[in-house]
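anyone seen this seq b4? input:
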Amino acid sequence: MVSTSPDAPSQVGFIVAKTVGNAVTRNLVKRRLREIVVETIKQHPYGVNVVVRALPVSAQASFNDLVMDYRKAFFAASTRLRDSAAGSSPLISTPSVDKAHESKGEDVL
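predicted toks r here
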């Protein structure tokens, strides 16, 4: 999540890699995520850019699970953004990756 000019419209991008599934599955996940993000755009129509990365488990997740995970991640990112507003960079830093998980190629949030 990045804070932009308060006059700039908010934007949301999606990353749904082939590891999520075949084209039909990836498109289903994207459609679900787009529906979930509508609420964010309504609440924050200006000044925020968000990138949502779908992990492979999102293909088997229910819609309600995706909603809860997205809300939790958005709240955490917006809290970090608010806390870093006093700092020099508006970018949200990603959490450090555990080296044991990184070497196995697993996605860690």
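The mean pLDDT is 79. The radius of gyration is 15 Å. kinda curious what u guys think
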